[in-house]
Amino acid sequence: MKRIAIVVASLIAITVNAQEKPHIMLVMHGGAGTITRGSMTAEMETQYRDTLAQALKTGQAVLMKGGSSIDAVEASIRILEDSPLFNAGKGAVFTHEGKNELDSAIMDGKTKKAGAVAGVTIIRNPITAARAVMEKSPPVMMTGRGAELFATKMGLEIVDPSYFWTERRWKGLQQELLKEQQRQANPHASIKSDDETRHGTVGAVALDAAGNLAAGTSTGGTTNKQYGRIGDSPIIGAGTYADNESVAVSCTGTGEFFIRWTVAHDIAALYLYKGMTVEQAGNEVIHKKLEPVGGDGGAIILDRKGNFAMPFNSEGMYRGWIGPDGVPHVEIYK
Fold first, then answer.
1. Which of 239, 257, 279, 304 could bridge 295 with an S-S bond, Cβ 3.0-4.6 Å?
2. Would you say 151 and 129 are in contact if contact means Cβ atoms under 8 Å apart?
3. CB 14 within 8 A of CB 69
4. pLDDT tens for each residue of 55-87
């Protein structure tokens, strides 16, 4: 009897330990577009993979220490915002006027609180500003000078606009301006933009040990954008969404389509009301709804069970995930 009791006690201990082990997950994207092996050098690919892996490890470390999903989303996105590789923060593309205008949003799946900034030019990390809006102000979204003034009052890091200047993005603007002139001179000619260099987004979705979801997205918009254009990234329900009852979603692609089709919320609604899996819901929206109408891009989707999907209908999407084992997985091509 004593031996049986010991065995039973051991089994109970194993069960308890298994239950106590944090079932955490972090999924990220760095933008979708025409991304092929032929268009990228081995050195550049290594840089992208290493930076994504670093961002994943940073967010995972937060989760493993008991940090919230919001903490992990912010920390991981800041890594990509500080990198000149991605179209967010330091690597933001230029507007028609030669400026860098940044958009970002974050959402807490537990409370459904959200914050966003758009069209900001002096905030080093827009994702941190979006979180400040969520936690320290009544509005959900702030734009332009108002958002910058708020960020300054909150003590966030403010930089000179020249901080965001990079030669690669500046050349990208010049190429787009030239193509714009060519289209005007010959309206019937087929002159396409380079989707990979013209736009892009970064985003993260996370599940913490308490079972709470969060989502965040950050972008510099599209190269040569005009008239204060704002895409889907800072719009809750379009490019960013999180709800513990369904999923956390961050999108990337041609923002106008993601706004009109309310992509992030549509994915969450299919999961919640139709009982679709994350993969089914993502494919339904990204492939069956957007693709036929020319809406290119993708999304990362995560539920409270740790199930995730990363559907996209473009040539490639920078993406990755990391769980409790601490091993980052990074993918780029189809």
1. 257
2. yes
3. no
4. 999 999 999 999 999 999 999 999 999 999 999
pTM of the model: 0.91
CA dihedral 309, 314, 318, 321 (to 10 degrees): 10
The pLDDT of residue 334: 87
φ, ψ for residue 257, nearest 5 deg: -70, -40
Q: Report the length, in residues, of the chain.
A: 334
Helix or strand holding residue 31 (H, E): strand 25-33
Q: What is the mean pLDDT of residues 124-149?
A: 98
DSSP, residue by residue, 263-283: HHHHHHHHHHHS---HHHHHH
Tell me, what DSSP letter sits at residue 305?
Answer: T
Alpha helix segments (H runs only) across the chain: 2-20, 42-64, 69-81, 126-136, 144-153, 167-185, 195-198, 255-260, 263-273, 278-283
Check pLDDT > 70 for residue 238.
Answer: yes
Spatial distance between the Cα atoms of 194 and 277, rounded to a whole number of angstroms: 33
What residues are labeled active site?
Answer: 201
